[in-house]
Each structure stands twice: as structure tokens, then as C-alpha cells.
């Protein structure tokens, strides 16, 4: 089981489990991973080849290593065991929960590393926790956390000086979803919009009221058809549309701020730093990106705040 520090298991019956979307470390697993993401629909060979090209272009995804570091630091902060897992690839949350149960853990606080979709992770984890004899306390969506919004604002401010505010548009991005999910009542888009407004308000306090911002949804599926060949309509506006609007509005510079993501992964290192950079430059825009939170101390502060009341309730 992925351990936080590799040392002895801390005493007690409680633990924390942080869970991310997931990625592969071995690129030969990409086809199977994509099948999981696509809810059992195998990807075409062309789609797998394109995924591999993107992973190779960024030197492989650092996401699993970052998650392990997050768990290690959070364990030291909280003083209870912290394990990490993925929702859609190994180590699966269900397997890590089973391992925690075998270790004698009966109460687990689940903290999804997907702040605007916490309910999805909770729903996936509950059956495995029940089977393992574990009482699970799940974080609710925590994307509006004041400390989290402050951490994102601080990173954006690193690449936007007050003197540049009038010529810059900050485009805050989150991962797109099939629009049908939002149409069925999922609060994702509502949560992202509120977080973006809160971050923008923080920024304007420090950079000036002239700073403009927009929200865009990135990383729509590489294939436009889903399971059964049915077309997928994605939540927007997408990045090309948003960059067209930025250009039309007379800005000279765009700063991409991936506020829907916590850590570097292919969506950041390729979809933004390669693809979105190209799209911006094609429109005559200077490109910059706000750094990710990764396993920085201020994110650990936020995660500790999310976990502590869950440990009390677990």
C-alpha cells in the first residue's frame, strides 16, 4: 500500500486517505488507463498513440510522485497515518482502503485531491470502505476554501505585476466535463465560477481593479465520441474560444491559471504549457502560467484544515 513516509505505521485506528484522479507511470498502461477513464470503452490505437506522444513530450507525468509527497507531508502535519490512492488507476482507492482495514484502521478521513468534485470521489469510495469495515468521513467540495483561494491568488500574483494589469487577462481554467453531467445538476461549474470570483477579488486587492479575468474549461476529451460512438458535448467555453475573446478585447498578454487543478500533470505541462502556449502565440498574445500548488506547504495547510474535522467525525 502506498505509505506516506515508508516508516512504521502510526498507532491508532484512524487514518487519512488522499485520492487523485490518477495517472500511469508506465506508458504501456495508457490503453488500459484510457479505458478506465472512458468507463470501459477502449480507446482507438490513434488515441493511445496521441496520449503517449503527450506524455513523452513532458517527460512523463509527475502526479503520482507529487501525491506521495503530499501524503508524506500531511502525515507529519497531522500526526496520523496518511495514505494516497487514485480513483481511476493503480493504486486504486478500493485497494488502499482494503489495506488500511487489514492494518486495523476502522475510521478513515477521505480528502479528494479534486476540490470541486469531492462528492464523486466519496461515492466511489464508500462501497470499498464498507467492505473493509471502515467508517468513512468524506470531505465535501472544498474549492471555495479561503486559504486555497489565497494560495492560487498568490501564485497568479507572481506572474502579474501591477504595471501589467491593464494589458493582461488572467484565464482561470478547470478541467471540462461532458455537458450532460452538469445538465443533470452536478455543481461543478457553479463551484468553479465561485472560486474564480473569489480568487479574482483577492488579486484585485493587490494588483489593481483594472485586472481582467475569464474562466475557461480545458482538456476536453481527445475523442469527440464517447461510449457507443455517441457524440460528447463538453462544458465550455474552451480555451480557443476564450483566447479569441482575449485577443478581441485588446489584451497583449494572457496568464493561464489552472485553478481547477492542484498539481502538475499532463493537463498542465502539455495542454497548457505546450498547446495553450501555441494557441496564445498564434493570436499574438504573450503567454505565462501561474505555478501549480503541487506539494507546497500552503496546500498542506489547506488539506490539514479539510482533514481535521473529518478525523473528529470519522
Provide an overview of this structure.
The chain is of the alpha/beta class and 314 residues long. The protein folds into two domains: 14-142 and 295-313, Rossmann fold (3-Layer(aba) Sandwich); 160-289, Rossmann fold (3-Layer(aba) Sandwich), CATH 3.40.50.1400. The chain contains twelve helices and eight strands. The chain has helices at 30-37, 45-57, 63-78, 93-102, 118-131, 146-158, 179-183, 188-207, 239-248, 266-269, 271-282, 297-313; strands at residues 14-20, 82-86, 107-112, 135-138, 168-175, 212-218, 253-257, 286-289. The strands form two sheets. Strands 2-1-3-4 form a four-stranded parallel sheet, sandwiched between helices. A four-stranded parallel sheet has the order 6-5-7-8, with helices on both faces. Helix 5 (118-131) links the parallel strand 3 and strand 4. Helix 3 (63-78) crosses helix 12 (297-313) and helix 6 (146-158) crosses helix 8 (188-207). The longest helix is centred in the middle third of the chain and has 20 residues, at 188-207. The protein is globular and about 60 Å long.
Gyration radius, rounded: 20 Å
Structural class: alpha/beta
Numbering strands along the chain, what is their spatial order in the largest sheet?
Answer: 2-1-3-4
What is the name of the CATH topology of the largest domain?
Rossmann fold
Mean pLDDT: 94
What's the CATH architecture name of the largest domain?
Answer: 3-Layer(aba) Sandwich
Task: Give, in order, the helices and strands.
Answer: EHHHEHEHEHEHHEHEHHEH
CATH class of the largest domain: Alpha Beta
Gap between N and C termini: 21 Å
Let me know the number of strands.
Answer: 8
Summarize the main sheet.
4 strands, parallel
Q: Given the structure, what is the number of helices?
A: 12
When the domains are counted, the total is 2
Q: Spans with pLDDT under 50 lasting ≥5 residues?
A: 5-10
Q: Identify the quaternary structure here.
A: single chain
Helix content: 40-55%
Shape: globular
| % residues in beta strands | 5-15%
